[in-house]
Amino acid sequence: MDAKHSQIVIVGGSLAGLTLALACATRGVPVHVIERSARRVQGGDSLSIDLAALVATVGHDPRTHPVLPVVPAYRDRHLTTWPALYAWLHDRAAKTRGIIIQEGRAVVSVASLEDRAQLFFSDGSEMVADAVIGADGYHSTVRRAIAPEAGLARYAGYLVWRGLIDEKALKRPIPLPSNGGLWIELVDGYRLVAAVLPGRDGSIEVGQRQVTFAWFDVHREELLRRTNRVTEDGNVVGTLARGTIDNEIRAELLALVPRLWPETWAEAVAVGIRSAEALSGAPIAEYEPKRLSAGGLAIVGDAAHVVSPMTGSGFASGVEDAAVLSRLLADRRVNEPFSAPLARYEAARLPFVRALVRHSRRISSDFHLYATTV
């Protein structure tokens, strides 16, 4: 099978899919990215990244022009916003030879054809590719083809309220420098993680930044089940998206703010809760894979393994997936079926990611025990 005539399709054009696409193209492996939505502008609020690992994987340095706006977090990690990282990856991928991005096309199912793979689209069309890599998130279509008996992520017992607001919306700026790192506090069974981030224009000037918070809450299982975000058997199937959280829940959260959180963050959290477009609620999902590949199919990122954000390893583990898989695809022997490097990818990554998910479960269990006994 000549690489000049091979076709690798990545299902999902968000962070993991774009990272894998750039990693492959950097190593001379052309890819076709298929994303169901038009160019995305929303996602999570903040995330930590290892800049050195990112440049080593994607072949572009986020510290040089065009610069990815970041602030220091801890050790070798930095913080950025989801929209900023997505825009940086998307712009690099769109300009990189060997990457085709097709948006607005939804994959409804995939199937392994031994050494190849088939995709089925919502418009009734089909495509056969040499390999299909699922980077389609925690509710992955490709994962369900690889592991139909265990295709959904499980509820970890708590949710996170997230908000991202402009600092200029506050009466007073946050009295911390832009290199202040993460602020973490446990109070009365709740946990808050907060930080200042670069502004929408990349500015780190006081008053022009953004403020992010993640409020972990174990008391919302009834809400999640009533709104069909968590199924009766504990599978996570949705989130409380921006604009969907009712006034009664907002009022409950607002009443807790002055009791729980110090003045430094209380106003920012309250402003985020009041804003329909700032607040979201996501049930924490965890997924430990039994497989990462099957014939011509494989999965990366949240499609492959899902961990609590308390691990700080969500995006980082997806970068590691991309680094390993792109290298193995680039090293594929002439005339070797793609199922072979995909199987080697599974052998290399599966023990590590399963251990990571188990670590996430221990963290979740400890937090749940603490939060329900104080």
Structure description:
- The protein has about 375 residues and is of the alpha+beta class.
- The chain folds into 2 domains: about 5-65 and about 75-150 and about 285-370, 3-Layer(bba) Sandwich (FAD/NAD(P)-binding domain); about 155-285, D-Amino Acid Oxidase, Chain A, domain 2 (2-Layer Sandwich).
- It is built from 9 helices and 17 strands.
- It has a 6-stranded mixed sheet with strand order 6-2-1-10-17-16. A 5-stranded antiparallel sheet has the order 12-13-14-11-15.
- A hairpin with a 2-residue loop joins strand 12 and strand 13.
- The longest helix has about 35 residues, at about 340-374.
- The chain is globular and about 65 Å long.
- It starts with 7 loop residues before the first strand and ends with a helix.
- Residues about 1-5 have low confidence and may be disordered.
Q: Short description, anyone?
A:
With about 375 residues, the protein is an alpha+beta fold. The chain has helices at about 15-25, 50-60, 80-95, 140-145, 220-225, 245-260, 265-275, 315-330, 340-374, and strands at about 10, 30-35, 45-50, 70-75, 75-80, 100-105, 105-115, 115-120, 125-130, 130-135, 155-165, 185, 190-195, 210-215, 280-285, 295, 295-300.
Lay out the secondary structure.
Elements: E1 8-11, H1 15-26, E2 31-35, E3 46-49, H2 51-58, E4 71-74, E5 77-81, H3 82-94, E6 99-103, E7 107-113, E8 116-121, E9 126-129, E10 131-134, H4 141-146, E11 154-166, E12 183-187, E13 190-197, E14 210-217, H5 221-226, H6 247-260, H7 263-274, E15 280-286, E16 293-294, E17 297-299, H8 314-330, H9 339-373
Parallel strand pairs: 1-2, 1-10, 2-6, 10-17
Antiparallel strand pairs: 3-5, 4-5, 7-8, 8-9, 11-14, 11-15, 12-13, 13-14, 16-17
